[in-house]
Amino acid sequence: MSDEKKALSPSAETDVYAIHGADPEVLAYAMAKYSRSALSMKESLVEISAQRAEQFLNTFYFQYGHRSIADLAHIPFAIERLSLLAAIDLVDEQRWDGQERSTRYQDFRRSGWYTPELGAKTPVFTAAIEAMFKAYQQVGAGMLDALKIAIARPEEMKPEAYERTLKARAFDVARYLLPLATNTSLGQIVNARTLETQVSRLLTSPFAEIRQIGEKLRRAATEPAWNVYHADAQVLCEEIGSVDGNCGHRATEMLMRPVKTAPTLVKYATPNAYLEESRKELAAAAAALMKGQAIHPAPVVDLLDDSEPLEVELATSLLYPNCHYSYRQLRSNVAALTASRRDELIALGTKHRGKHDELLRAFSAGRGFHFDILMDIGGFRDMHRHRRCVQLLQPFTDAHGYEEPICPGQPTLAEANLAEEYKSAMDAALDAYRALRDSGIDEAAQSAQYCLPLGTRCRAMFKMDFAEALYISELRSGVAGHFSYRRVAWEMYKAVAERHPALASQFRIEDVNEPVDLLRR
Fold it and tell me: What is the CATH architecture assignment of 273-401+456-506?
């Protein structure tokens, strides 16, 4: 066969192979070359150097706005010893994958806590946090004792498994007392586009801790990464070098060279002026609209009707994360506005948008199911993991009070003789929050949120399609789950079933009001 015919004939088989060892940016460049080159992936990776990748990305990523290229560079990070408050903000990305330390399986007394710069108010803050950790320990230990009295160990269950299972149930109760200042750790694997927007968003935070984490993330992506094989590589290189000096030198260069994961793709991440200015103006607009109205009582889960005009949804959604009102109460005020005034509110959401800024999350409108959820912060952290929906979070506050941990079939706080201790600890925590918030010192007022315990109620809007509503309801109602989000999942199911009774049979749901086998995990 002639060379010309060979070139025109199709390949005999599809070639599939995994790739390992390429730097994230180099790999992103190699994949992007499919649109501009006939080279195979192997040929591209052999041809590309880090320097050429940087030149390419500087041209096509920054000059021409081809941000999809950054989707191809995936980078693992460890973020350790950050507060629960910062962790919630860090993971608030729709394109995010990772895991965080579990309050169910780990004793957070060992974690310590973050202390913001509070000056003369530091002793007030420290005393409040120490009191919460003391209550966390006492309530956890007391609930574990009550569980052991209430639930006998089956003969077939090993003592260590019995102890571990009941301890997890006790932690489910005790975690309500953990303050948002509590340190945690998490790992994330994100693509460079998500990382860039994440860093930019964190740098815009009103919290100093979160801004520092944003800067550290950017630095971690541009400096040499930690190499898990560094020690082994050093030994191997020495062994190769003792046999063949030239080969050993090349092996050393290859195995021990510093790898910078995304030095080009995130180097220009800066505070997001669009987000910062929009947040200020929308908060002012929400305050002007509501004129100091009292916050109306609201159910745990409120499924909003879907008959509202898109313009009303957009304007309400833009204001919602910048106040503490329920979506329904806020929407009634928005709906009463003139069309021109609603248009002005929507325009605030795009007023400061730069050339490459993604629209604010509130513009992800038009989804069929809108759940306004009021639940404890600890349970919200679990619900927050659902990415196939649009979530609008409100700032943490004492305005909605706090929850009491109640699990059907499990001893109550009163039955465990812990009710007064729990109430006193929660009330003291909210008192400390208010003392800092109302201190007249800006930094103390902002940092007061660190004093709020995970049992404090928070409000968030979840917008989703039917498939996601079914998925969350089924997954989070399972008997092995935490009783806080089990109740929310059940209320979501009931709300959908009431509005669409023909669809109720499609849910594989477990009634959360039934007592559960507490030894079942």
Answer: 2-Layer Sandwich (3.30)
